[in-house]
Every structure is written in structure tokens, then in C-alpha cells.
């Protein structure tokens, strides 16, 4: 059982700590603070570490040290808890300033009984709430965007290796005065956005790194990744100091999709630490500044001049870059607008006919012949069903699956009643938040712009009172998302139905997926069939051949099926599709309400 003991942060408190049996030779985590400032650390000797901190100019005026003792702690646990406390406290906001210059341990290490200790962290956090060291519950914190996209996220070993390589590639581009590209492949849930933010954070804060304390304490250099990360960051700091005279990199973080762009822009505004909202931009903004480095998240969503809402801005940017609008694309804009470009890419997540095809993407990269290094993220970070679940849904959507498999640690169910699915997801949303229902685009968006989409329920309520709706399935009526902008965190998302454009790039605790009228299954040919008359996204359809549309629609469903962290609930409008999916997904009526 965790026990938080409080000591004065002075010589008297140090003496009291020395008198405890676990005060001098036991792994602990600790918090040093006054009312506004907090420093979090870990050590195997609380007294020795406290003595060092008392001599530190930045910390010497703090008032209290809280030491967390537990007879079952070991070195791996306290490294993990230190990192988690830094992240949770930075999001919680109880303390105005988190004094840590690093994120704790650099890689997420596995260790004996890690799941048990992770569960016990909620107990420790409750003690912190009781002692007024925190304001918000674990559940509230974990649902915040700043938590999911925090620069304090610890990377796993695979992400860390890629970050080391990418940072060195960036330095090499400037040292050799040659344009370079780092291309990071990764499917849904492999942590591409988190990795991008972590690298940007390292680039922004490299000049402030304390050489003697650099990110990882000396006793923690237990593997090559930690040592390599330390050496890379030292190289980065030295390069900025000597080659650039202390001048920071001009960095742009490009998001093709406006919804998640607005979300990350707000995160950067909130978290500070050198990250500013102006860094987060759209593709048309790449010409507005003289960028050193451009990061592009979801680069598979960069556009070409086809089926766009407006062509003028596309044409204007193209011409400013001396490019012919009908022959270029947004990837080419990016490649011409910075010394080094970091692209995050998943060819299976292209969902619109305006998206650059895989062939167009590769040909654009070849056209410029920059120094290009490719990396792969394979470890699943989002979905608790892991890589097994992601491969499972890919096999279902490509008709390669032969047998049903029960997903361990993942709630994957199919419903016969669409309204029961919707209401079950809404109940989950009431319980834990971030649980939403999403559908395929086979119903017109009739309510679009009928009312100003305020971030409250008034617009939705007015539509209901007027008897308006978009989606009708049997006798049940639903309204599409009132806006594409940050729909997931809006109050009205609880009652409306989202689409691919409101959810791609986001995590949900649970996702409900309604397969629409446009997608069905043919048992004779063992294939998914698409009825394009029932597909209502006119901008995607225009000038796009049937085979390409089928691929985009299947990509859409595969992508939204992968949005849920804890579970996914499914319903299909067409009976054959419902029957086909039941071969591989457990029917909800076979599971009790308590099990859900």
C-alpha cells in the first residue's frame, strides 16, 4: 500500500527522513513543492537525493517534500511512476509550474507485474487528491486532449529508436546543407502524432537541456536506447549552439484535416514548454513562413487538385511555388518549403478521392530525389486489442478471414438493433466519456448549416423540436455531426452521429460503427460490394472510378473500426452485411449487460 509522508524541505526535514528505515536505501518517488511549483523525481535514497536538491538554486525555496513509500516498489516501478506523475500533474493543473526539464524515463519499459502497478497508480492518485496535491480524477485527465497529445508522453522502445534516427537525420540535413526527408510508416494507433510531438518538443527545448542531468539520470542508463537518446540530444544541443549560434529551428506541424488541426493547436497553446499554437498549420500555410523543418501528420490525407471545396487557394499556393496547379499536389508544396521534412504515412487510411494515391505519393518523392530515410512503427499503442485486433478487422474488410476469434482484452460486439447500439454507446459516454457513434456516408447531411453550430445542445434540441433528421434506420432517427471541427469533444457529440472526417486521428474509449446502405456482402462471390447510388459523399464520388471508390469506402470503415481503445460496437444496415459480420463478431445479445 502506498503511503505519502510529508517532510519540511529543509535540513530539519532531511534529518527526519534519514531516521526512517526506507529513507536512505529504498526505491521511492517524491514530489517537492510549494503552492505553485512542483518537481517530481525518483531515487533509491530519498535522503541523499533531498540533500542534493537543497543545494539546487531552482528548488531550494520550495517548502515541502512528499515521499511515496511502498514496500513493493522496485527500480522499474519508480521510473514508471515518475514519468506518469509528471504527465498527469502537467495535465491536472493543480500546480502552475512543473519544474522537470525532462519527461522521466525515456522509453516505456516493460517489467514484472507492470499491469498490477499500473492499476495501483489510481490508488496513489486518489491519495494525492485527498492531500490536495491534485484536482482532477484519473478518468477526467485521461480524456483530455492535452493528455493524449502531451509532450510528456513517454515513448516506447520502437518510437524512441525512430525519434533518435529522425533527430540525427534532421541534424545531418543542416550539417551537409542538403534537403532531407524522414518518412515514418505506421498504421492506426501506432503513435505517429505522439512521436511527432515528442520530436518537436526535443527540437524546441534542446538548447535548455542541462548536460549533467540530461533527460535520463546516470544510474538509469540500462540500455543502448537510453544512452543513444542522450548522445543524440547532446549532439542536437551542441549543433544549435555552435552551428546555428543558438538560433532555434523554425518548425511547422502540418495537419491536412482541420478538425484535429484545431485540437492540436489548442493543445500546443495550453501546454507551453516552447510549443506554441502558431506551429500547427494547414497545408496552404507552408508558404507563409521560411520553415527549417516541416512535420506532416496523416500525410496520406494531403490533397491533389480534385474534388476540393475550393480551388482558388490550391491554385494560388501552387503558383507561388512555381508549380502548375493541375500537375502538383500538397506533398510537393511541403517538399519545396523546408530544409527537412518529416512525413507520417499510412497508405491504408486514404479515404477521399482528393487524397494523393500511393503511386502519386511515391512518384512525388522520387521527383525531388532528396535524401530519404524510411522508418516503420509497428507496435499498437491505442487499441487494447493490440495488433491482433487491427489485423482481424483488416482481414474481415478484405474478406480474408475464415474463422471467428474472441478478442482478449477488447469488447467487440455486433448489434441487431441499431438504437440499442447507439444507446449503449451513449451510456458508456456517460460513464467514462469519449464514447461516440460513427456511420458510413450513405445518408444526406440535410441539417448542415441549418443552425449555427454552437458548442452546446441548443442547436441539436432545436433540430429535434422541428422534427428534422439526417439518418433514418427503421423507426429511429439521428442527426449527423453539427460540425466537423473538434466534434469528438463537443457536448452535442453525445447525441449526434459522427463520420470519418470528424474522427480520423482521434482516440475514443468506445466507438460505435454503423455500416451504411452503401456497403453489402455477396456470399456467392465472397466479396464486399458497394452500391454507389447509396453513397452520398458527392465530392468523393465526382470523377472517381468505381474500383477506387470501393477501396476508399473500405479504407473508411477499416479506419473507424480502429478508433476505439477499449471496444467497438457494430451494426450493419444491409442484412447480408450484418450476417457476414456476425460470422466474426460476437452478437451483443449473447453478452450480459454487466459484461458490456
The end-to-end distance, rounded to whole angstroms, is 30 Å
Shape: globular
Poorly predicted regions are: 212-222
The major pleated sheet works out as: 6 strands, parallel
Helix content: 25-40%
Fourth CATH level, the homologous superfamily of the largest domain? P-loop containing nucleotide triphosphate hydrolases
Give the count of structural domains: 3
| Structural class by helix and strand composition | alpha/beta
Number of helices: 20
Number-wise, the strands total 20
Rg over alpha carbons: 26 Å
Named at the architecture level, the CATH assignment of the largest domain is 3-Layer(aba) Sandwich
User: What percent strand?
Assistant: 15-25%
CATH class of the largest domain: Alpha Beta
The averaged pLDDT comes out at 90
CATH structural fold name of the largest domain: Rossmann fold
> Strands across the major sheet, in which order?
8-7-9-10-6-11
Written description of the protein model:
The protein is of the alpha/beta class. It has three domains: 3-142, GIY-YIG endonuclease; 157-377, P-loop containing nucleotide triphosphate hydrolases (Rossmann fold); 402-590. 37% of the residues lie in helices and 17% in strands. The strands form five sheets. It has a six-stranded parallel sheet with strand order 8-7-9-10-6-11. Strands 1-4-2-3-5 form a five-stranded mixed sheet, sandwiched between helices. Strands 13-16-19-12-20 form a five-stranded parallel sheet, sandwiched between helices. A hairpin with a 4-residue loop joins β17 (519-522) and β18. It is globular and about 80 Å long. The protein starts with a strand and ends in a 9-residue tail after the last strand. The model is unreliable at 212-222 (pLDDT under 50).
